Amino acid sequence: MGEGIIGFSRFVLMDGTLLVGLFLLITWLVVLVQQRVPFQSMQTSLLGASNWKSSFVASVGGVITPFCSCSTIPVLSGMLRAGVGFAPSFAFLISSPVVNEGVFALLLLTHGPVPATIFIVAGLVITSAAGLFADKLGLSRHVTLGGKPTTDARFVGSGGPTWPGFGPASRFAWLGATQELRKSAPYLIVGLVIGGLIYGAVPRDMLLGAVDSVSLPMLFLICALIGLPLYISPLMAIPIGLSLIEKGFPAGPLVTFLVSAIGTSPPEVALLLRMFRLPLVIAHTLTVILSALALGAIVHVVI
Questions:
Q1: CA distance 16 to 143
Q2: What is the C-alpha separation between 257 and 241, in angstroms, rounded?
Q3: Residue closest to 30 by CA, chosen among 159, 118, 126
């Protein structure tokens, strides 16, 4: 009992301090990059376009826009109303929560820059292809979003059209990072508590015994299906993932679990049903599962 409490406290304090610093750094970099992105020209290039370039640009926009699965929906609605093509819209819908900063930071902390970078690159390719494939299947016919078109959909951020210089941009990015940390603090605390409980209370031998009791392909599938109904933010994923990796859980299946849990959720499905017919909602969910399996398998091979 005493060892469990000590382990819990050590995890929350040490990993919590590390994660706050990492969160501020990554968010600062993201806001800095957002200020360099030519928003208007990027948005214009996506209007009516449904090709590889437009899907890739939308996927990049999803990566540098830190959204959870639910907060992606209002941006998607704005994109569709603005006349953005279906392929880039679907690519953004998948990319924004799936290729997320939480899993990137986790891989960076535990396995270095190579697996973390490969995760991002592979995610961009997979989500871009998913947008094109969904468009080729004609799934756009299941979009039921109505209303008058608008031209104010910005899916990357709200920065100005010109670069203000590194000094002002850096100060603005730091302000954005600290504000985002205050808003995200409850998710970080929940993630640290869950991670601390796993680290301090779950016996390593029991966890590894459960992992070894199933084949590797089955473990990937189980992780994808367990993560699917959960609602985990990218920030919560880092401490939970750290605790499992420190217990010896394999990184590939863990990535699959986290991508599945972050990539979709019951609240997001409910929101999508207001915009899509059921076949397109099912296609979205299957795409998240397949993306989670593919990304987990790629990380497993690399590591």
A1: 42
A2: 9
A3: 159
| Overall domain count for the chain | 1
Please state the φ and ψ torsions of residue 47, each to the nearest 5 degrees.
Answer: -65, 120
Q: How far apart are CA 301 and CA 38, in angstroms?
A: 36
pTM for this one? 0.78
Both structure tokens of 223: 């992780």
pLDDT by residue (tens digit) across 128-183? 999 999 999 999 999 986 444 333 334 444 444 566 778 888 888 888 878 877 87
Rg for the chain, CA atoms, rounded: 19
- At 107 the pLDDT is 95
Contact of 31 with 179, CB cutoff 8 Å: no
DSSP state at residue 47: B
Domain that holds residue 115: 2-302
Contacts of 85 (CB under 8 A, 6+ apart): 46, 47, 48, 49, 50, 51, 54, 135
Place of tokens 């006349």: 83
Q: What is the 3-state secondary structure (H, E, C) of 109-143?
A: HHHCHHHHHHHHHHHHHHHHHHHHHHHHCCHHHHE
- What are 276's strand-pairing partners? 143
Higher pLDDT, 35 or 66: 35
Check if the beta carbon of residue 11 is closer than 8 Å to that of residue 199: yes
Looking at residue 79, its pLDDT comes to 77
